[in-house]
Amino acid sequence: MANPAPTSTRAGEFFIKVRGFSKSLSISLANQIISSASNFGILLYLLRELEKLEFGTYSLGFATILLISGCTVSLFSVPLAINLPRLPVDQRKAYTLNQLVISGAIGGLIVLIGLAASWTLEAYLPATEIYLAVALSSAFYGLRDLLSRLAFSERKESVVLTSTTISSVTIFLGFFLTNILNQRLTDETSLLIYAASQFTGLLTTYLLLKLPKISSITTAGLKDSFIRSWGGGKWNLMTNITYNLRTQAHNFISAPILGFVALAEINAARTFVTPAILLIPPLSQIVTPRLAQLRTTNPSRLLRISTLTTLTLLAICLIYAATLLPLLPWALPIITDGKYPDIDNLIFLWCANTILLSVRNGLSITLEVTENFKEIFKCNLISAVFAIIASTTLSLHLGGEGALIALISTELLLCILLTATLKRQSPRLKLGI
Protein backbone atom coordinates (compact mmCIF):
# COMPACT_ATOMS: atom_id res chain seq x y z
CA MET A 1 0.00 0.00 0.00
CA ALA A 2 1.43 3.35 -1.04
CA ASN A 3 2.17 5.87 1.68
CA PRO A 4 0.04 9.03 1.59
CA ALA A 5 1.76 12.20 0.46
CA PRO A 6 3.23 14.25 3.32
CA THR A 7 1.02 17.04 4.61
CA SER A 8 3.59 19.65 3.60
CA THR A 9 3.61 18.34 0.02
CA ARG A 10 -0.18 18.40 -0.22
CA ALA A 11 -0.22 21.92 1.26
CA GLY A 12 2.38 23.04 -1.28
CA GLU A 13 0.38 21.61 -4.18
CA PHE A 14 -2.76 23.31 -2.86
CA PHE A 15 -0.91 26.62 -2.57
CA ILE A 16 0.36 26.35 -6.16
CA LYS A 17 -3.17 25.64 -7.42
CA VAL A 18 -4.63 28.56 -5.46
CA ARG A 19 -1.87 30.88 -6.65
CA GLY A 20 -2.43 29.79 -10.27
CA PHE A 21 -6.16 30.35 -10.01
CA SER A 22 -5.62 33.72 -8.31
CA LYS A 23 -3.32 34.81 -11.13
CA SER A 24 -5.85 33.72 -13.76
CA LEU A 25 -8.62 35.48 -11.88
CA SER A 26 -6.57 38.68 -11.52
CA ILE A 27 -5.72 38.84 -15.23
CA SER A 28 -9.31 38.01 -16.16
CA LEU A 29 -10.52 40.70 -13.78
CA ALA A 30 -8.22 43.23 -15.45
CA ASN A 31 -9.52 42.06 -18.82
CA GLN A 32 -13.09 42.51 -17.63
CA ILE A 33 -12.39 45.96 -16.22
CA ILE A 34 -11.01 47.08 -19.59
CA SER A 35 -13.82 45.39 -21.52
CA SER A 36 -16.60 46.67 -19.25
CA ALA A 37 -15.18 50.18 -19.04
CA SER A 38 -14.74 50.46 -22.80
CA ASN A 39 -18.14 48.94 -23.63
CA PHE A 40 -19.85 51.11 -21.06
CA GLY A 41 -18.01 54.18 -22.33
CA ILE A 42 -18.97 53.36 -25.92
CA LEU A 43 -22.63 52.99 -25.02
CA LEU A 44 -22.64 56.26 -23.10
CA TYR A 45 -20.93 58.03 -26.00
CA LEU A 46 -23.42 56.65 -28.54
CA LEU A 47 -26.29 57.45 -26.19
CA ARG A 48 -25.30 61.11 -26.29
CA GLU A 49 -24.12 61.34 -29.91
CA LEU A 50 -26.78 59.41 -31.82
CA GLU A 51 -30.30 60.60 -32.35
CA LYS A 52 -32.99 58.47 -30.67
CA LEU A 53 -34.01 56.87 -33.96
CA GLU A 54 -30.39 56.03 -34.79
CA PHE A 55 -29.71 54.63 -31.32
CA GLY A 56 -32.77 52.41 -31.72
CA THR A 57 -31.50 51.18 -35.11
CA TYR A 58 -28.02 50.60 -33.65
CA SER A 59 -29.58 48.59 -30.81
CA LEU A 60 -31.45 46.35 -33.24
CA GLY A 61 -28.29 45.91 -35.36
CA PHE A 62 -26.26 44.94 -32.31
CA ALA A 63 -28.96 42.47 -31.23
CA THR A 64 -28.71 40.90 -34.70
CA ILE A 65 -24.93 40.59 -34.29
CA LEU A 66 -25.44 38.73 -31.02
CA LEU A 67 -27.95 36.40 -32.69
CA ILE A 68 -25.75 35.54 -35.70
CA SER A 69 -22.42 35.32 -33.87
CA GLY A 70 -24.12 33.36 -31.11
CA CYS A 71 -24.91 30.65 -33.65
CA THR A 72 -21.23 30.09 -34.48
CA VAL A 73 -20.25 30.41 -30.82
CA SER A 74 -22.80 27.79 -29.74
CA LEU A 75 -21.92 25.41 -32.57
CA PHE A 76 -18.12 25.63 -32.27
CA SER A 77 -16.85 27.69 -29.30
CA VAL A 78 -18.88 26.09 -26.49
CA PRO A 79 -18.17 22.48 -27.62
CA LEU A 80 -14.51 23.50 -28.01
CA ALA A 81 -14.28 24.62 -24.37
CA ILE A 82 -15.84 21.34 -23.25
CA ASN A 83 -13.86 19.04 -25.57
CA LEU A 84 -10.39 20.54 -25.09
CA PRO A 85 -9.79 19.14 -21.56
CA ARG A 86 -10.43 15.63 -22.92
CA LEU A 87 -7.81 15.90 -25.66
CA PRO A 88 -4.07 15.35 -25.24
CA VAL A 89 -2.29 18.67 -24.86
CA ASP A 90 -0.42 18.28 -28.16
CA GLN A 91 -3.70 17.90 -30.10
CA ARG A 92 -5.57 20.89 -28.73
CA LYS A 93 -4.21 23.60 -31.02
CA ALA A 94 -4.71 21.43 -34.11
CA TYR A 95 -8.32 20.79 -33.08
CA THR A 96 -8.84 24.52 -32.50
CA LEU A 97 -7.34 25.35 -35.91
CA ASN A 98 -9.77 22.95 -37.59
CA GLN A 99 -12.66 24.59 -35.76
CA LEU A 100 -11.35 28.02 -36.76
CA VAL A 101 -11.28 27.08 -40.45
CA ILE A 102 -14.80 25.65 -40.38
CA SER A 103 -16.12 28.63 -38.43
CA GLY A 104 -14.23 30.97 -40.76
CA ALA A 105 -15.89 29.42 -43.81
CA ILE A 106 -19.30 30.01 -42.23
CA GLY A 107 -18.24 33.55 -41.33
CA GLY A 108 -17.26 34.17 -44.95
CA LEU A 109 -20.71 33.02 -46.05
CA ILE A 110 -22.30 35.44 -43.56
CA VAL A 111 -20.27 38.32 -45.02
CA LEU A 112 -21.28 37.39 -48.58
CA ILE A 113 -24.93 37.42 -47.50
CA GLY A 114 -24.39 40.85 -45.94
CA LEU A 115 -22.82 42.14 -49.15
CA ALA A 116 -25.67 40.72 -51.23
CA ALA A 117 -28.23 42.36 -48.93
CA SER A 118 -26.45 45.73 -49.18
CA TRP A 119 -26.31 45.64 -52.98
CA THR A 120 -29.82 44.25 -53.44
CA LEU A 121 -31.60 46.64 -51.08
CA GLU A 122 -29.58 49.75 -51.94
CA ALA A 123 -32.20 51.02 -54.37
CA TYR A 124 -35.08 50.51 -51.92
CA LEU A 125 -33.78 51.28 -48.40
CA PRO A 126 -31.46 53.92 -46.94
CA ALA A 127 -28.25 53.09 -45.05
CA THR A 128 -27.83 49.58 -46.46
CA GLU A 129 -24.19 49.58 -45.20
CA ILE A 130 -25.64 48.47 -41.88
CA TYR A 131 -26.19 44.96 -43.28
CA LEU A 132 -22.52 44.62 -44.18
CA ALA A 133 -21.47 46.04 -40.80
CA VAL A 134 -23.65 43.50 -38.99
CA ALA A 135 -22.31 40.63 -41.13
CA LEU A 136 -18.63 41.57 -40.61
CA SER A 137 -19.11 42.08 -36.87
CA SER A 138 -20.88 38.74 -36.53
CA ALA A 139 -18.17 36.82 -38.40
CA PHE A 140 -15.22 38.39 -36.57
CA TYR A 141 -16.93 38.15 -33.16
CA GLY A 142 -17.54 34.41 -33.55
CA LEU A 143 -13.96 33.66 -34.63
CA ARG A 144 -12.48 35.79 -31.85
CA ASP A 145 -14.63 34.08 -29.23
CA LEU A 146 -13.47 30.65 -30.41
CA LEU A 147 -9.79 31.56 -30.03
CA SER A 148 -10.48 33.16 -26.65
CA ARG A 149 -11.88 29.83 -25.44
CA LEU A 150 -8.58 28.15 -26.33
CA ALA A 151 -6.66 30.84 -24.48
CA PHE A 152 -8.79 30.37 -21.36
CA SER A 153 -8.48 26.59 -21.60
CA GLU A 154 -4.67 26.87 -21.77
CA ARG A 155 -4.70 29.37 -18.88
CA LYS A 156 -3.37 32.08 -21.20
CA GLU A 157 -5.67 34.78 -19.91
CA SER A 158 -3.04 37.40 -20.77
CA VAL A 159 -3.68 36.72 -24.48
CA VAL A 160 -7.35 37.60 -24.03
CA LEU A 161 -6.38 40.69 -22.03
CA THR A 162 -4.12 41.91 -24.86
CA SER A 163 -6.82 41.21 -27.45
CA THR A 164 -9.42 43.12 -25.44
CA THR A 165 -7.08 46.09 -25.06
CA ILE A 166 -6.32 46.25 -28.79
CA SER A 167 -10.01 45.92 -29.63
CA SER A 168 -10.98 48.72 -27.23
CA VAL A 169 -8.26 51.02 -28.57
CA THR A 170 -9.53 50.38 -32.11
CA ILE A 171 -13.03 51.55 -31.21
CA PHE A 172 -11.89 54.73 -29.48
CA LEU A 173 -9.50 55.45 -32.36
CA GLY A 174 -12.42 55.05 -34.78
CA PHE A 175 -14.52 57.53 -32.81
CA PHE A 176 -11.57 59.92 -32.56
CA LEU A 177 -10.92 59.85 -36.32
CA THR A 178 -14.62 60.38 -37.04
CA ASN A 179 -14.56 63.43 -34.80
CA ILE A 180 -11.39 65.08 -36.13
CA LEU A 181 -12.51 64.49 -39.73
CA ASN A 182 -15.76 66.29 -38.90
CA GLN A 183 -17.85 63.28 -39.88
CA ARG A 184 -21.18 62.86 -38.14
CA LEU A 185 -21.36 59.59 -36.23
CA THR A 186 -24.27 57.43 -37.41
CA ASP A 187 -25.65 53.99 -36.59
CA GLU A 188 -23.90 52.51 -39.68
CA THR A 189 -20.47 53.99 -38.95
CA SER A 190 -20.76 52.94 -35.29
CA LEU A 191 -21.34 49.31 -36.31
CA LEU A 192 -18.53 49.43 -38.89
CA ILE A 193 -16.14 50.69 -36.21
CA TYR A 194 -17.29 47.82 -33.98
CA ALA A 195 -16.57 45.36 -36.81
CA ALA A 196 -13.04 46.79 -37.14
CA SER A 197 -12.48 46.34 -33.40
CA GLN A 198 -13.52 42.70 -33.57
CA PHE A 199 -11.12 42.12 -36.46
CA THR A 200 -8.12 43.64 -34.65
CA GLY A 201 -9.00 41.62 -31.54
CA LEU A 202 -9.25 38.43 -33.62
CA LEU A 203 -5.94 39.06 -35.38
CA THR A 204 -4.17 39.77 -32.07
CA THR A 205 -5.47 36.58 -30.46
CA TYR A 206 -4.54 34.47 -33.50
CA LEU A 207 -0.97 35.78 -33.63
CA LEU A 208 -0.35 35.38 -29.89
CA LEU A 209 -1.70 31.82 -29.66
CA LYS A 210 0.69 30.58 -32.39
CA LEU A 211 -1.58 27.97 -33.90
CA PRO A 212 -0.22 25.34 -36.31
CA LYS A 213 0.21 26.33 -39.94
CA ILE A 214 -2.86 26.22 -42.18
CA SER A 215 -0.98 23.72 -44.38
CA SER A 216 -1.24 21.15 -41.57
CA ILE A 217 -5.02 20.93 -41.96
CA THR A 218 -6.42 17.72 -43.46
CA THR A 219 -9.88 16.83 -44.68
CA ALA A 220 -10.03 14.02 -42.11
CA GLY A 221 -9.11 16.45 -39.34
CA LEU A 222 -11.81 18.91 -40.40
CA LYS A 223 -14.39 16.13 -40.56
CA ASP A 224 -13.43 14.79 -37.11
CA SER A 225 -13.52 18.28 -35.57
CA PHE A 226 -16.93 18.99 -37.04
CA ILE A 227 -18.33 15.67 -35.77
CA ARG A 228 -16.99 16.40 -32.28
CA SER A 229 -18.76 19.75 -32.25
CA TRP A 230 -21.97 18.70 -33.95
CA GLY A 231 -22.94 16.14 -31.29
CA GLY A 232 -23.81 18.65 -28.62
CA GLY A 233 -23.39 21.68 -30.84
CA LYS A 234 -26.60 21.14 -32.79
CA TRP A 235 -28.61 21.36 -29.58
CA ASN A 236 -26.51 24.30 -28.49
CA LEU A 237 -27.23 26.01 -31.83
CA MET A 238 -30.97 25.60 -31.47
CA THR A 239 -30.69 26.74 -27.87
CA ASN A 240 -28.89 29.89 -29.02
CA ILE A 241 -31.63 30.73 -31.50
CA THR A 242 -34.34 30.28 -28.89
CA TYR A 243 -32.13 32.08 -26.34
CA ASN A 244 -31.90 35.16 -28.56
CA LEU A 245 -35.60 35.10 -29.34
CA ARG A 246 -36.15 35.05 -25.58
CA THR A 247 -33.58 37.61 -24.43
CA GLN A 248 -33.90 39.93 -27.44
CA ALA A 249 -37.69 39.84 -27.69
CA HIS A 250 -37.76 43.50 -26.61
CA ASN A 251 -35.68 44.28 -29.73
CA PHE A 252 -37.04 41.94 -32.39
CA ILE A 253 -40.71 41.99 -31.37
CA SER A 254 -41.18 45.31 -29.59
CA ALA A 255 -39.46 47.37 -32.32
CA PRO A 256 -42.20 46.81 -34.94
CA ILE A 257 -44.90 47.37 -32.29
CA LEU A 258 -43.47 50.35 -30.40
CA GLY A 259 -41.10 51.88 -32.97
CA PHE A 260 -37.36 52.64 -32.87
CA VAL A 261 -37.67 55.63 -30.55
CA ALA A 262 -39.31 53.49 -27.86
CA LEU A 263 -36.65 50.83 -28.51
CA ALA A 264 -33.98 53.49 -27.97
CA GLU A 265 -35.48 54.30 -24.55
CA ILE A 266 -35.55 50.61 -23.55
CA ASN A 267 -31.90 50.16 -24.52
CA ALA A 268 -30.87 53.48 -23.01
CA ALA A 269 -32.20 52.18 -19.69
CA ARG A 270 -30.29 48.93 -20.21
CA THR A 271 -27.07 50.93 -20.49
CA PHE A 272 -27.27 51.65 -16.75
CA VAL A 273 -27.03 47.94 -15.86
CA THR A 274 -24.43 47.14 -18.52
CA PRO A 275 -21.46 47.03 -16.09
CA ALA A 276 -23.18 44.27 -14.07
CA ILE A 277 -24.26 42.35 -17.18
CA LEU A 278 -20.76 42.49 -18.66
CA LEU A 279 -19.31 40.74 -15.61
CA ILE A 280 -21.18 37.51 -16.39
CA PRO A 281 -19.60 36.17 -19.64
CA PRO A 282 -15.90 36.50 -18.61
CA LEU A 283 -16.46 34.75 -15.29
CA SER A 284 -18.31 32.01 -17.17
CA GLN A 285 -15.37 31.63 -19.58
CA ILE A 286 -12.96 31.22 -16.66
CA VAL A 287 -15.11 28.71 -14.81
CA THR A 288 -16.39 26.59 -17.73
CA PRO A 289 -13.12 24.75 -18.62
CA ARG A 290 -12.46 24.06 -14.94
CA LEU A 291 -15.95 22.67 -14.42
CA ALA A 292 -15.60 20.56 -17.57
CA GLN A 293 -12.50 18.99 -16.05
CA LEU A 294 -14.25 18.36 -12.72
CA ARG A 295 -17.09 16.62 -14.55
CA THR A 296 -14.92 13.48 -14.89
CA THR A 297 -12.76 13.83 -11.78
CA ASN A 298 -15.07 15.13 -9.04
CA PRO A 299 -18.77 15.64 -9.97
CA SER A 300 -19.83 16.67 -6.46
CA ARG A 301 -17.18 19.41 -6.38
CA LEU A 302 -18.45 20.58 -9.78
CA LEU A 303 -21.78 21.44 -8.18
CA ARG A 304 -20.12 23.30 -5.30
CA ILE A 305 -18.00 25.44 -7.63
CA SER A 306 -20.92 26.22 -9.96
CA THR A 307 -23.11 27.13 -6.96
CA LEU A 308 -20.37 29.42 -5.63
CA THR A 309 -20.10 31.05 -9.07
CA THR A 310 -23.85 31.64 -9.18
CA LEU A 311 -23.94 33.13 -5.69
CA THR A 312 -20.99 35.39 -6.53
CA LEU A 313 -22.73 36.73 -9.62
CA LEU A 314 -25.98 37.16 -7.70
CA ALA A 315 -24.23 39.11 -4.94
CA ILE A 316 -22.52 41.39 -7.47
CA CYS A 317 -25.82 42.16 -9.23
CA LEU A 318 -27.65 42.82 -5.95
CA ILE A 319 -24.95 45.18 -4.69
CA TYR A 320 -24.83 46.95 -8.05
CA ALA A 321 -28.62 47.49 -8.14
CA ALA A 322 -28.66 48.69 -4.52
CA THR A 323 -25.94 51.22 -5.36
CA LEU A 324 -27.36 52.38 -8.70
CA LEU A 325 -31.01 53.05 -7.90
CA PRO A 326 -30.51 55.73 -5.20
CA LEU A 327 -28.12 57.60 -7.54
CA LEU A 328 -30.53 57.79 -10.49
CA PRO A 329 -32.08 61.24 -9.78
CA TRP A 330 -28.60 62.73 -9.97
CA ALA A 331 -26.97 60.49 -12.60
CA LEU A 332 -29.76 60.14 -15.19
CA PRO A 333 -29.82 63.71 -16.61
CA ILE A 334 -26.02 63.94 -16.61
CA ILE A 335 -25.36 60.61 -18.34
CA THR A 336 -28.09 60.90 -20.99
CA ASP A 337 -27.57 64.62 -21.62
CA GLY A 338 -31.26 65.13 -20.88
CA LYS A 339 -32.40 63.05 -23.90
CA TYR A 340 -34.04 60.32 -21.81
CA PRO A 341 -35.68 61.96 -18.76
CA ASP A 342 -38.41 59.39 -18.07
CA ILE A 343 -36.71 55.99 -18.03
CA ASP A 344 -36.43 55.48 -14.23
CA ASN A 345 -38.98 52.65 -14.20
CA LEU A 346 -37.28 50.97 -17.14
CA ILE A 347 -33.93 51.03 -15.28
CA PHE A 348 -35.55 49.47 -12.19
CA LEU A 349 -36.98 46.67 -14.35
CA TRP A 350 -33.60 46.07 -15.96
CA CYS A 351 -32.05 45.71 -12.49
CA ALA A 352 -34.60 43.02 -11.61
CA ASN A 353 -33.87 41.22 -14.89
CA THR A 354 -30.10 41.33 -14.29
CA ILE A 355 -30.50 39.69 -10.88
CA LEU A 356 -32.43 36.80 -12.43
CA LEU A 357 -29.91 36.65 -15.28
CA SER A 358 -27.08 35.92 -12.82
CA VAL A 359 -28.96 32.94 -11.38
CA ARG A 360 -29.97 31.58 -14.76
CA ASN A 361 -26.40 31.82 -16.05
CA GLY A 362 -25.05 29.71 -13.20
CA LEU A 363 -27.66 27.01 -13.82
CA SER A 364 -26.94 27.02 -17.56
CA ILE A 365 -23.17 26.60 -17.06
CA THR A 366 -23.69 23.51 -14.89
CA LEU A 367 -25.97 21.89 -17.47
CA GLU A 368 -23.64 22.83 -20.33
CA VAL A 369 -20.52 21.22 -18.87
CA THR A 370 -22.51 18.07 -18.08
CA GLU A 371 -23.56 18.06 -21.76
CA ASN A 372 -27.30 18.41 -21.19
CA PHE A 373 -27.63 20.43 -24.39
CA LYS A 374 -30.90 18.83 -25.40
CA GLU A 375 -32.46 19.58 -22.02
CA ILE A 376 -31.22 23.17 -22.11
CA PHE A 377 -32.74 23.56 -25.56
CA LYS A 378 -36.11 22.29 -24.38
CA CYS A 379 -36.12 24.74 -21.47
CA ASN A 380 -35.15 27.62 -23.74
CA LEU A 381 -37.73 26.64 -26.34
CA ILE A 382 -40.54 26.77 -23.78
CA SER A 383 -39.24 30.10 -22.48
CA ALA A 384 -38.86 31.55 -26.00
CA VAL A 385 -42.47 30.73 -26.90
CA PHE A 386 -43.57 32.33 -23.64
CA ALA A 387 -41.36 35.39 -24.33
CA ILE A 388 -42.81 35.95 -27.79
CA ILE A 389 -46.39 35.76 -26.55
CA ALA A 390 -45.73 37.84 -23.41
CA SER A 391 -43.68 40.50 -25.22
CA THR A 392 -46.28 40.95 -27.94
CA THR A 393 -49.19 41.14 -25.48
CA LEU A 394 -47.57 43.32 -22.82
CA SER A 395 -45.91 45.67 -25.32
CA LEU A 396 -49.29 46.39 -26.87
CA HIS A 397 -50.87 47.16 -23.49
CA LEU A 398 -48.02 48.58 -21.38
CA GLY A 399 -45.45 49.83 -23.90
CA GLY A 400 -41.75 49.61 -23.05
CA GLU A 401 -42.39 48.65 -19.44
CA GLY A 402 -44.56 45.78 -20.64
CA ALA A 403 -41.72 44.51 -22.85
CA LEU A 404 -39.37 44.38 -19.85
CA ILE A 405 -41.95 42.79 -17.55
CA ALA A 406 -42.26 40.05 -20.18
CA LEU A 407 -38.46 39.68 -20.19
CA ILE A 408 -38.32 39.36 -16.39
CA SER A 409 -41.16 36.82 -16.32
CA THR A 410 -39.36 34.76 -18.97
CA GLU A 411 -36.09 34.72 -17.00
CA LEU A 412 -37.95 33.59 -13.88
CA LEU A 413 -39.69 30.80 -15.81
CA LEU A 414 -36.37 29.62 -17.26
CA CYS A 415 -34.69 29.56 -13.83
CA ILE A 416 -37.48 27.30 -12.58
CA LEU A 417 -37.21 24.99 -15.61
CA LEU A 418 -33.40 24.72 -15.39
CA THR A 419 -33.51 24.01 -11.65
CA ALA A 420 -36.04 21.22 -12.23
CA THR A 421 -33.85 19.79 -15.01
CA LEU A 422 -30.73 19.86 -12.85
CA LYS A 423 -32.49 18.02 -10.03
CA ARG A 424 -33.85 15.46 -12.47
CA GLN A 425 -30.38 14.83 -13.96
CA SER A 426 -28.59 14.76 -10.60
CA PRO A 427 -28.70 10.97 -9.96
CA ARG A 428 -27.24 10.21 -13.40
CA LEU A 429 -24.51 12.84 -13.07
CA LYS A 430 -23.77 12.02 -9.41
CA LEU A 431 -24.04 15.67 -8.41
CA GLY A 432 -25.62 14.88 -5.08
CA ILE A 433 -28.56 17.26 -5.28
Q: Into which percent range does the helicity of residues fall?
A: over 70%
Count of beta strands: 0
The number of distinct helices, counting runs of at least 4 residues, comes to: 15
* Overall 3D shape: globular
Residues in β-strands, percent: under 5%
Q: From the structure provided, what is the oligomeric state, counting identical versus distinct chains?
A: single chain
Q: List segments where confidence is low: pLDDT < 50 over at least 5 consecutive residues.
A: 10-18
Number of domains: 2
Nearest-integer average pLDDT: 82
What is the CA-based Rg, rounded?
22 Å
In sequence order, what are the helices and strands, one letter per element? HHHHHHHHHHHHHHH
Q: Characterize the largest beta sheet: strand count, sense, and whether it forms a barrel.
A: none
Describe the structure.
The chain has helices at residues 7-49, 52-83, 92-121, 129-153, 157-180, 187-209, 219-247, 249-252, 254-258, 260-271, 274-277, 280-297, 299-335, 344-369, 373-429. With 433 residues, it is mostly helical. It folds into two domains: 31-237, no CATH class; 248-433, no CATH class. The longest helix is centred in the C-terminal third of the chain and has 57 residues, at 373-429. The protein is globular.
